[in-house]
TrEMBL record:
It comes from the Bacteria. Transmembrane segments: none annotated. This is Adenosylmethionine-8-amino-7-oxononanoate aminotransferase. Pyridoxal 5'-phosphate binds at residues 119-120, 266, 329-330. Catalyzes the transfer of the alpha-amino group from S-adenosyl-L-methionine (SAM) to 7-keto-8-aminopelargonic acid (KAPA) to form 7,8-diaminopelargonic acid (DAPA). It is the only aminotransferase known to utilize SAM as an amino donor.
């Protein structure tokens, strides 16, 4: 049967262009003709159009929707000046203004910013920085990292080494990856919001205590070879949308302090309000030494990430033999990206409290019926994140098609059908997303 959502563009794409984690001869991709607000317009072979709500916010970054007038204006204004200039020996207003905003917004006393091309590259920079930091402190043998199972930090090689070594996507490269120290995944937790708006975290306290004991022992065993602790705070994203108790993050902060390690928090997916706090580390009242941000940083307009760090870290690097952080991308601090990012972060600061709790409440309410479906193992939400976990791997083509027929674009993986929608979704948009997911799961796996 011909795909009603196919297009000539998609047919030309197939076998020519690589797509993420997909074979060249895989299913024909859907073609996007336009995107406005929270909706994508997909083109059919006969020229017909099908409008769907983007439940993925373009892999979690388009939090303000498409063609946002504030971000459009920032881009046009910067284009009228200059779109790019090298950052070696030069600076410009968009980079400085964005760095000032990030250090002011970040949790705790952050003082310095390094701009990178993407989230994966920002993790690479953070890992390099950690090694340089330890060498500057007279501990050059500290070359490994402590992390937890189930994590995902990007697709470049150093970042791959701190992703889950067994269940992650990077088990195909075992001989090329540095061997890190992996603690168990923290026990699952759930944030319960009462009718009066009170919040409490629930988890298996015994499992949390046992996990804490094991992590402390592991860190003590490897203390002399560790440079930093590297984790996604509270919510592990591409590793399985796993939510864990903020107490686990506080334990990792204590472990880092006890052994002279840096605490590197990957807030690329969790930052800028996504979990219901400006940064997910704030659920635990924990301040990182180094923090990576990306995705929502530019609202999905351009690729940009940043590594934000404390004054202590910056001073250690400055006192080191090289005196510089040894990384320098061609497009570092691209002015166009920085200008849009500054507008995006300012917009996040002024609007996320109005949007994220509302989106979260609606996702929780309208995804709950999925829990009664026979092949659903769990339904969970945190901030503007909603997850339906199945008892078996997702039938991705069937779920995708069934959701599209209900007016929703989703991109399932593993055993998860989930949504991280744009913050600006209306109540009706969120209901459509949640009911579309529940209906698609019932049709494909019911």
């Amino acid at each position: 049967m011909p795909d009603p959502f196919g297009s000539p563009v998609a047919a030309r794409d197939r076998g020519l262009v690589w797509h993420p984690y997909a074979p060249l001869d895989g299913p024909e991709p859907y073609a996007v003709e336009s995107a406005t607000g929270v909706r994508l317009t997909l083109t059919a072979p006969d020229g017909g159009r099908h409008e769907v709500v983007d439940a993925m916010a373009s892999w979690w970054c388009a939090v303000h929707g498409y063609r946002n007038p504030v971000l459009d204006a920032a881009a046009h204004e910067q284009l009228d000046r200059f779109s790019h200039v090298m950052f070696g020996g030069l600076t410009h207003e968009p980079a400085v203004r964005l760095a000032e905003r990030l250090t002011a917004m970040a949790p705790g006393p952050m003082a310095h910013v390094f701009f990178a091309d993407s989230g994966s590259v920002s993790v690479e920079v953070a890992l390099k920085l950690s090694l340089q930091y330890q060498a500057a402190r007279g501990r050059p043998k500290r070359q490994r990292f402590l992390t937890v199972r189930g994590g995902y930090h990007g697709d470049t090689f150093a970042a791959m080494s701190v992703c889950d070594p067994v269940d992650g996507m990077h088990s195909a490269f075992p001989g090329a990856l540095a061997r890190q120290v992996f603690a168990p995944r923290p026990p699952a937790a759930r944030l319960v919001v009462t009718a009066t708006g009170d919040e409490r975290w629930e988890t298996d306290r015994l499992a949390l205590q046992e996990w804490t004991t094991e992590v402390r022992a592991l860190a003590a065993t490897h203390s002399d070879e560790l440079a930093a602790v590297v984790v996604e705070p509270v919510l592990q994203g591409a590793g399985g949308m796993h939510v864990y108790h903020p107490e686990s993050l506080r334990v990792l902060r204590e472990v880092a302090d006890d052994h002279g390690l840096l605490l590197v928090l990957d807030e690329i997916a969790t930052g800028f309000g996504r979990t219901g706090r400006p940064f997910a580390s704030e659920w635990a009242d924990v301040t990182p030494d180094v923090m990576c941000v990306g995705k929502a940083l530019t609202g999905g307009y351009l690729s940009l990430a940043a590594v934000v760090m404390t004054r202590d870290v910056g001073e250690a690097i400055t006192r080191s033999a090289f005196r510089a952080l040894l990384h320098g991308p061609t497009f570092m601090a691209n002015p166009l990206a920085c200008a849009v990012a500054d507008a995006s972060v300012e917009l996040v600061e002024s609007t996320w409290k109005d949007h994220v709790p509302r989106v979260g409440r609606l996702l929780s309410e309208h995804l709950e019926p999925a829990a009664a479906l026979p092949h659903v193992a769990d339904v969970r939400t945190l901030g503007a994140v909603g997850v339906v976990q199945l008892t078996s791997p997702v039938d991705v083509p069937r779920i995708t098609r069934a959701a599209l027929e209900r007016g929703v674009w989703v991109r399932p993986f593993r055993d998860l059908v989930y949504t991280m929608p744009p913050y600006v979704c209306t109540d009706d948009d969120v209901r459509l997303i949640a009911e579309g997911i529940v209906g698609a799961v019932a049709e494909a796996h019911g």
